Predict the 3D structure of the following.
Amino acid sequence: MRTEYLEATKLLERLHRQFLEVVKTELDRLNIEDINNVQALILFNIGQDELTVGELTNRGYYLGSNVSYNVRKMVENGYLVQERSTHDRRSIRVRLSEKGLNLQRHMGAMFDRHAGALANTGNTAERLRAAAAAFRDLERFWSSMLDYSGAPVVPETTTAA
């Protein structure tokens, strides 16, 4: 089990880096130089929502990045609109600008292309669901390790590798 566990963690890291390179390649293809791959993913995940920086951080999709810095750069480059909350003047909310919405549409089209191409490789939605279930199991396990109670939580569902 140790060998498989270490292999899975190495693969996750490698896949994440490779995915970021794929997003960077898409930005290059579109001749977009004023936003990086991590920022483009943050922008895509904001979508039609209006969120605070804290809400973005709590989503936890942006490992290895400083969300506040990236939000500031996207505001400076016109991808996000930043406004004070009408309910809590201390809170700043962000939403996509027209430029941000345009890039989000491009990113959505990229994901659609990827899904179509992936289906042509013999992969199925069922295999991707199984992989996602295994990732969720790891996420729950690692979250339980941060609980500091000393005992890891056994995932509710186990997935076959």
The first strand starts at residue 51 and ends at 52. Residues 2-29 form the longest helix (28 residues). The two ends are 11 Å apart (CA to CA).
